[in-house]
Amino acid sequence: xxVWFNPSKAIESELSAIAVETEGFGADFxxxxxxxxxxxxxxxxxxxxxxxxxxxxxxxxxxxxxxDAAIASGRFDPxxxxxxLAGPGFINFKLSQAFIWQWQLDFSTKEDxxxxxxxxxxxxxxxxxxxxxxxxxxxxxxxxxxxxxxQAISRLLDFCGADLVRDNHIGDWGTNFGxxxxxxxxDGIDLSTLGEDxxxxxxxxxxxxxALETEQPELRDISRNELVQLxxxxxxxxxxxxxxxxxxxVAFDKLFEQMGVEVDITLGESFYRDKVERxxxxxxxxxxxxESDGALVVWHDEVKKFARDNERPYPFxxxxxxxxxxxxxxxxxxxxxxxxxxxxxxxxxxxxxRQQDHFQxxxxxxxxxxxxxxxxxxxxxxxxxxxxxxxxxxxxxxxxGESIKLQELLDEARSRAFDVVTEKxxxxxxxxxxxxxxSVGIGAMKYADLSSNRTQDYVFSWDRLLSFEGNTAPYLxxxxxxxxxxxxxxxxxxxxxIEGASQLETxxxxxxxxxxMGFVTALELTLNDLRPHFLCTYLYxxxxxxSSFYNSDKVMVDDEAVKxxxxxxxxxxxxxxxxxxxxxxxxxxxxx
Length: 592
Ligand code: ARG
Known about the structure:
The protein is α/β, with parallel strands linked by helices. The protein folds into three domains: 7-95, Gyrase A, domain 2, CATH 3.30.1360; 127-383, 3-Layer(aba) Sandwich (Rossmann fold); 402-592, Isoleucyl-tRNA Synthetase, Domain 1 (Orthogonal Bundle), CATH 1.10.730. 53% of the residues lie in helices and 10% in strands. The protein is built from 20 helices and 13 strands. It has helices at 7-21, 47-54, 59-72, 97-106, 110-117, 144-159, 176-186, 198-215, 219-231, 235-259, 276-285, 327-342, 356-373, 406-424, 430-451, 462-465, 473-490, 507-529, 533-552, 560-583; strands at 33-35, 43-45, 81-86, 90-95, 125-129, 163-167, 289-292, 295-298, 316-319, 346-352, 379-385, 388-389, 458-459. The protein has a four-stranded antiparallel sheet. Helix 18 runs antiparallel to helix 19 (533-552) and helix 18 packs parallel to helix 20 (560-583). The longest helix has 25 residues, at 235-259. It is flat and about 85 Å long. The protein binds arginine. Residues 129, 132-134, 169, 171, 331, 334, 349, 351 line the site of arginine.
């Protein structure tokens, strides 16, 4: 029997084939295989129960029949996997030591893992909408999570075989441009002379412009008019707008580079400005949209808070009463574009938790509209997150209460990591310490963000995220560096094949080997919910299993066969850890 890369998926399909082909179960039989409580085995199938009930059969009898057929089929070698009936009709699967060891031999490189993992998202066209910041504003701490979480999810989807489009849906068509243009023209500013810190200046111009509007409300009309002029294609305003967008792009590209953010295309809100008319027409035509005080709105009466008869009516407003488009209109046009231009099977949006209502209304509207028009409906999901808090449990701000600039945060991460590395390893050259600090500093920040369940708030703490103990990036990076040093000592390449190993013996070896296989389950779990903390928890547990193994089973022993198998376990731990860190956007280091 060939060892399965992903046992739960393989068991699911083998069992379903056997049930249907040789046992005459209907096609409605779903084995329902999932990871089991380790007390009972590795996996458990619980689908027999529901199926038996539905067809008026005895679940235990049916379960036993299926087990017998599975063994008779030869697709479940008893030396590799043991099947047993449990409880009211569950089937338990326990992988043998032989299986677990063979798995280590058959899957040894990142490429092996990737070709196995490909089946998880195989060829699905997925558009991921991130980091999608608003233009003309400096990046601050609020931009950290979209970059970090979006990047990890993108890498993961790509690794698992998705055909990915990373679409940076920037907010480049907002009302703030009216105020900005008013202020720029009033002061006679030539944007092309601003130089390096142009975005900082723009940020200030906008703030000053808004303050001015508060002092002299009549300026609001001027700003509004500048916006209308821009939207009507006035050449002067368009030129200013283009410069603003370019200045933002340059500043963001610099951050993307440091953060490891990759995007495939940038189609901002402005890209959809000539595509919204069709949205108004189609939604009206299918009877979803209606006029309300001059605006165009969509009601979703089945959801209380969006229903017409609610005390505070809150419909999906898709066109403002002055006829202008808004966030909702562009998002509707965007969904359609993603279907028509990319033939998306799936669209994933990333924003903070405050936009949940918007996306709920967007998805409901899209479902009804696409159904009415007979368009293929992509799977739509909103990945959102909580707030980053300071030690006072309030949103993380500077001491004077301002929002923290992202660039300053990155610089601080590097310099703090440099101090930590210097303390730990004063003998390394300064340039090497800088290189290590880059990966440790930025990596630690990313990891702290990813390792907490994204829907919850978390407290930002330099001491904790840079600690070499606990569920942190330095802890994982250090484990990789330590394994590298073992291989340097032995004088072999950790990626090279290691021959002559004997089978696993000690409990700690076996526990580590089983944990290594758990990588597959961790990937699945992370993908199902698009929650990277599952992968972090797994990598942390793997490192702990590795430590227990390393502390109790000496690697450098005289017995060559024992040494070989222990080196194999070290090499696999290294590969899984490195692969996992890379998926999270963290660069593994040779030494630390
Ligand atoms: N620019 C928006 C913001 O900063 C996020 C855009 C998210 N994507 C979308 N298609 N709505 O809040």
